[in-house]
Amino acid sequence: MENVGVSQNYVLKQRIKSAIYFIICVLIALICLIPIYILIMNATHTHIELTQMSINFLPGDNLIDNIKAITTQYTNWNVWRGYRNSLIIAGSCTILTVFFSAMTAYGLTVYNFKIRDGVYTFILAVMMIPIQVTSTGFVQFMVGTLGLSDSYIPLIVPSIAAPAIVFYMRQYMKASFPLDIVEAARIDGCNEFRTFISISLPMIRPAIAVQAIFAFVQNWNNYYTQNMILLGNNKWFTMPMMLQKVCGVDKNINMGARYAAIMLSILPVVVIYICLSRFIVGGVALGGVKE
Asked: Is the pTM of this model over 0.85?
């Protein structure tokens, strides 16, 4: 009987602990989602209504008019052009970043060479350098030396080097990637590149999906670098640059149009996140192995 009582107390404690964790997770989710919900609700109200009440939890009926007002009041705004330009940059950067980072992580995990630890330490050291430190030299080289202003090349090609994603990919592979399968592929006569493409990439698909989300969001929102390179014709403007043109105006402000512009700018990111979010928990958990 004493053992039964101890067991019941243990089960009760576990249920209470689970309930507390669940409540904490719900609160964190609400903290993250409520600002987005308020943003969408505000986008449906007029400027006058927003000046009277800046936070709205109920929808209005002015969303279409606010979207039309963006086009008429702001000459640089073209949502389809912004989507096209941002998707070209963010999509290309995501593909290059994920592919070459996975290849680098594969090499650091599978191959045992003398300077492997030194190379990995160097990659981590590069990860600690903020982009603001190197931005002046980057712009001088790309624009002054190579003449690549108003070009997507300086925004896409450097994404091949992504130290943070290499780090997480390597951690994931050390946790869940069996090296024996690489040896088996070599014995069967499979070359190294084919082993990486045909065997390794499908096995690390959750990590690829997770890092693809992070890379896409980062490059979609990368106003800093885009604003340094895309200097001329507004046909090159991305969604963050167009959004800055809308939010930077301090005369004849239309708050409803501003909220609608922000909502349109984050819509593709939200859609992609929803489509791939199921990979995040498993990918991050498996990538959190200790050295």
From this structure: no
